[in-house]
Amino acid sequence: MNGCTKSEVESTQLSEKITFRTVTYDTKAQTYTPDSKGGNVINSMGIFASATGQQNYDPAIHSVNFMHNVEISRQSVSEPWIYQDPQYWASGYTTFFAYAPYNAVGGAVSVPAKGEPTISFTVRQKQSEQVDLLLAKAEKDRTKTTSAVVISMQHALTRIGFKAKISHPTSDIESIDVVKVVKIELEGVYSSARHTLDASSPQGWYELSGVKSSANPFVLSIEKEPDGDGGGLKNIELDHTQTQPLNTDDGFLMMIPQNIDESKGGKFAKLRLYLTTDSHSTTGSSEAIFVDPIEFDLQHSGVNWKQGDAIIYTINIDLSDHTTTNSTLKAEVVDWDEINPDVSILNRRLELTRISAKVNGSALTRIHFWSNQPKVWIDPKGNSDVGGYPAGSEFIVDNLYLALAGGGASNIHYDTSVPRDASGGWAGYFDVENGANVQGDYHLYLCADTDYSGTPLRRSVKLRNILPHISQDNISTNYVGVFHRGNQVGERIITWRGTTNWTAVIETQKSAGGLYDDYKHVLMDRFTSPAYEAGILYTDNPGDAEDYRVSPWRDVAGGGVSADGRRWVSGANELYLRVGWDSYAPGAPYKKPVGAADIPSGDNYRNRYAVITIRKGVNSPDGQILHTLYLRQGELDDYLMNPDGDTYIPDNLEFYWSYNNSTKSYSYSGKTPAVSQRPYARRFSPYNLSDPSKGKGGGSLSEHNEIGVRGAVFTDFPSQAGYLFRFNDMLRAFNPANPGVGGGTISGVTHYNVNNPWDAARDETAPAGYRRPREHYAESKTLFDYSLSEFAQSLFIQPAANKLSNGEGILDNSGRYNSSQGWYADGFFDRRPIKGVNNSETAVGEGGDVAYFGSLYYNPRTLSSLFLPHAGDRFADNGRLEWPGQSGMYWSSSQNRDNYSYAWGLDFYESNYSPRFAITYQGYKGRAHAVRCVVEDI
To answer: Which residue of 6, 466, 628, 811 shows the fewest CB atoms closer than 10 Å?
Structure first.
C-alpha cells in the first residue's frame, strides 16, 4: 500500500489545514494496569478522502479524489497526529476513510473507479506478525472546520484468547499435580477476506477465503517453532481452583470475522490443545502421562466470530481416570479491555486522548476524554514521583492544580445533560495549570462510574510539571509586537520573565483606536503549544507556526469578555500567551505588487492592525497597563504616518543625547507651528534587505558577496537583520553575524572613496519598485528642521523642530513618543532560543538568518506598526561588528551636501543606561548598516 498526497481538487482560497484526532480502543493486550493504561498504541494510520463539492457523498457516483492513502502518524499517544504535505479543506463536502496501522502487514488497499476504498486482508500465519487491524467509520460530508476531524476507529477483526483450569476431582490431585498447555492449534477457519474502509458498512467482511488446514493451522505455543511460528502462550502450571489466562499480553490470535457454525468447503473449525503433565510421587520420581491433544469442534460452541468482538474460550481440563473425555469448552464474548479474567466484566468506558502531558510555567494544558458513564471526576489524591514530595507519595490534587479534584470540580467540563453521541457517551476535558510552581512528575487519576460511591473505572494521567524555562533564560525583555503575513494565522508565542499577575486584553476600536474593527479577528489563548509538548519549540528547528492554531474564542479558558466587548485572558506570575487570527487579511494571499500604481486600493486589500494590552492583576481587564503589544497581519508596504490625517506639532527640544525609558512627555514652547501635512511620509516595507545567496561571511572580504545593482532581496521575517551595506559601496552585502562580536575583523576592508556622491544607477541594491528613504540635504553644523526627512515624517509622531548636527550628530531622540523597544513575535524570533544576557546582543538564529531585538513604531490613530531590528553595524576600517541587538542604524540615500564623507541615516540604541528611541543622524559612509526600503512612488 503506497501513499501519496496529490489532490485532484482545488482547496478554497482561505482554507483551514485538515487535522485529525482519534477515538480508538486498546489493542491486543489483555493485562491491564489501571494506573498506566490510556489511549490505544496505534501510532500510524492511512487516510483517504473524497471531495464531492455541494453533493452528499454517494458511492455510486463519487470517487476517492482528494487524499490517497496519506500516512498520518504520531510519536506517542501524548503527541498530535501529523503528516507531510498538509492538505487543506476543499470547498463543499469531504468524506474521509481511514484504517490503522498504516500499510498494515497482510493488507492491501485498492481504490475503485467509484465508491469506497477497500482492503484485502490476510491474517499472517505467525502469531507474532498478526496485527490488530482498525477500520474507521466513514466521516461523511464533513465541511471546513478549525477542529480536528475525529477518526472513530473500531476493531475490524475478532480477537481470540484462551483460559483454562484443572477441574478433575481432588482425589486425583496428588497423582497429577502439574499440567501445562504447551500448544494450541486452530484449523478450519478463513484467513483472508475483503472489507470497505468503512467500519459501519452493513456488508462487513466478504469474499472470505483461505481455509486453514490441519497441516497448516494457526499455532500458539510456549516455545516458538524453528520457523518462527507459535509463541503467545504463558509457561504456567494450571491451577485446580481458579481459571488462568493462557495468552501472553500480546499473544492473542487476530482472526477474520466469520460464522464458526458453518462449513468451509466441508471443513468445520477445530481447536486442539496439547498438554504436558507430571505425576510426582512421594519418592520424588516423575513421569509424563498425556501426549495426545484435546480436540474440540467449535461449531457447537454457540458463538460466531463477529467484527470487533473479543472472544475467550475457557477450557475445563478434566483428567479423571487419566483421560480427557470429560474436558469441556465454553465460549464467551468479553470486553476487549478485559481487566482480569476472574472479575466480572463491566461495560464501562473511559478514554483519554493522551496519558501524559507537559505542564509548562503559567501555560494551560488541556486534556480531552470520553466516557459512557454519567459521572467523571478526578481522585482528590494523586501520586507524585518527585518535586517537593517523597518519591511515590500521595499528594492533594487541589494543592497543585486548580479546581480539579472531586465530583464538584469546576475545571472538569463534562456535560451529560445533552444527548449521548453516536458512540453512546459524552466528550469532556479539563485544563491543568501548575498553580503551586513546583517541578516534577505527578499522576492524576481520572475516574468514571454511575455514581461517586462505587469502585470506578480509573485512568492515570502523568503530568510533567516544568518550571518556566522559556526561550530567553534570565532575560526580562518584553515583546512589543506580533506579525503575521496576510495568509498566516498560526500561533505567535508571547512570554517573558519578571511579570506580575497579569491580564491580557484585546482592545476594541473604541478603547484603542484604529480605522477598522480588526480586533474582532484576533485570537488569544494560554494553551501550551503542541510544538513545546513535542520537544521542538525553542530549538533551531521549532516547526512551522502555521501548523499550530490558536483556539477559537469559545474554547478559551481563564478569561472573559468585559462589558464593552474587550476579550481577555489572565494568569499569574510569568506571562504566557498565544496570539493568532481567525482568517486571512483582506485580499490575502497577496500577489506582491510593484510600485504604487499596481497596488489595489480599498478595504478589500489591506493589512490588519490591532492592540493587546498587558494589565496588572489577575482578572483585571481595567487594571494598570504594563505593556502594549501592536499586532499586524499583512506584509503589504504601508504608511505608518499618513501624508494626510496625521498632523503633528514639532518637538522643540534640542541637543538631548538620551532619555530615560519612562520619558514619554515634553513641554512645547509654542515657537514652532503645527504641521498639517506630511508630504514626505512614505510607505515602508516590513522587511530589511538581504543577500539572495545568503553569503556565509567570514574574515575575508571575498566571503561577503557583491550582489549587483537592484540585486538584494527581502528577509523572510521582520525581526531578521538582513545583510549590512556601506553607503558608497552598496553592492557589497556584509554578513550580519560572521564574524561576530569579538570574532575579529574582515581582511581587505578599506575606507574606499567615501567622497563619491550617491548614484542610484550605480549604488542602489533595493529590488525593483523600491528605494532607500531620502533625508536632509544640510551642511555640517547647520540648524535644520525635518521638512525634507522621509524617516522623520514617516515614523515619528513628534519630529523635532530643529537640530544642530555636528559630525555624526547631536541626538534629539524624537522617536520616543511612538515607539517601544523589545522583541517581535513574527513566527521566527518567538520560536527559537534567545541568545544573550542582560538585554545585550539579544538574538535568535545565526548567520544570514539572524534576528534581533529592535524598535517598533506605531501610529496611535490607525494602530499601524513597523518593526526595525537593531542589527548593529560594521566599522569602516576593519569590518568589525559592533552593537548587534543593541544599536540599529539604517542608511538613507542622502549625504551631507558639503562633506561627502558623511551621509544621513536612522539611529536607535538600547542599553540599561542610555536608551535612544531613534534620531536621524549623520554617519561615516564607510560603515555598513542595515537598509529598510520605501516604495518607489516618487
So the answer is: 6
Number of domains the chain contains: 5
In a domain, 13, yes or no: no
749 shares a domain with 702: yes
Q: Quote the distance between the C-alpha of residue 472 and its chain's center.
A: 20
Which of 303, 334, 365 is the last residue before a domain boundary?
Answer: 334
91 close to 72: Cβ distance less than 8 angstroms:
no
For 512-540, the pLDDT digits (tens) are 999 999 999 999 999 989 888 888 888 88
Strand order in the sheet with 270-278: 218-221, 178-187, 270-278, 294-297
Cβ atoms of 773 and 790 closer than 8 Å: yes
60 contact partners, CB below 8 Å, separation of at least 6: 114, 115
Task: Kindly state whether residues 150 and 162 are assigned to the same domain.
Answer: no
**Phi-psi sector, 295: left (phi>0), alpha (psi -120 to 50), beta:** beta
Q: What is the pTM (predicted TM-score) of this model?
A: 0.64
Residues 113 and 34 placed together within one structural domain of the fold: yes
Q: Phi and psi of 381, rounded to 5°?
A: -115, 135
Say yes or no: 213 and 287 in one domain: yes
Hey, how many other C-beta atoms are within 10 angstroms of the C-beta on 484? 27
Q: Which residues are bridge partners to 612 per DSSP?
A: 506, 629
Last residue of one domain, picked from the residues 276, 306, 334: 334
What does the DSSP 8-state code read for residue 129? Answer: G
Neighbours of 276 (CB within 10 A): 15
- Tell me the three state secondary structure of residue 814: helix
The reply to whether 14 falls in a domain is: no
Say if 658 falls within a structural domain: no
Bridging pattern class, strands 843-844 and 819-825: unpaired
Residues 355 and 496 in one domain: no
CA dihedral for 215, 218, 224, 229, sign (positive or negative): positive
Q: Is 606 in a helix, a strand, or coil?
A: coil
Helix (H, G, I), strand (E, B) or coil at 510: helix
Classified as helix, coil or strand, 733 is coil
Mean pLDDT estimate for the chain: 81
Peptide bond into 589 cis (omega under 30): yes
Identify the CA nearest to 88 among candidates 51, 114, 54, 56: 51
CATH number of residue 190's parent domain: 2.60.40
- Together in a domain, 149 and 163: no
Q: In the prediction, which pLDDT does 465 show?
A: 78
Range of the domain at 261: 158-334
- Determine which helix (DSSP H) or strand (DSSP E) holds 561, and give its type and residue range: strand 559-561
Residues 807 and 906 in one domain: yes
Q: Are 766 and 933 in contact (CB under 8 A)?
A: yes
Question: How many residues belong to the chain?
Answer: 938
Domain membership of residue 87 (yes or no) is yes
Question: 470-505 pLDDT, tens per residue?
Answer: 444 445 578 999 999 999 999 999 987 666 788 999
Do residues 510 and 624 both lie within one domain? yes
The 575-581 sheet, strands edge to edge: 492-496, 575-581, 522-525
Pairing verdict, β 457-466 and 134-136: unpaired
pLDDT along the chain (938 residues), means of 10: 48 69 50 30 89 95 95 83 89 94 92 95 94 92 85 90 81 62 95 94 93 94 78 87 88 94 89 78 42 82 86 86 77 62 46 80 86 90 62 77 82 89 88 79 86 77 71 65 96 81 94 94 92 86 92 78 90 87 87 50 83 92 94 95 79 39 35 67 96 94 93 96 88 92 85 75 92 72 62 81 40 65 93 68 83 92 96 90 86 79 79 53 85 88
Q: What is the pLDDT of residues 332-382, one digit of tens each?
A: 887 765 333 222 223 578 888 777 788 877 788 889 999 988 999 999 888
Strands (E), 225-339: 244-245, 253-255, 270-278, 294-297, 310-317, 328-334
Torsion of CA 512, 517, 520, 526, to 10 degrees: -30
Q: Which residues, 6 or more positions from 284, have their beta carbon under 8 angstroms from its beta carbon? A: none
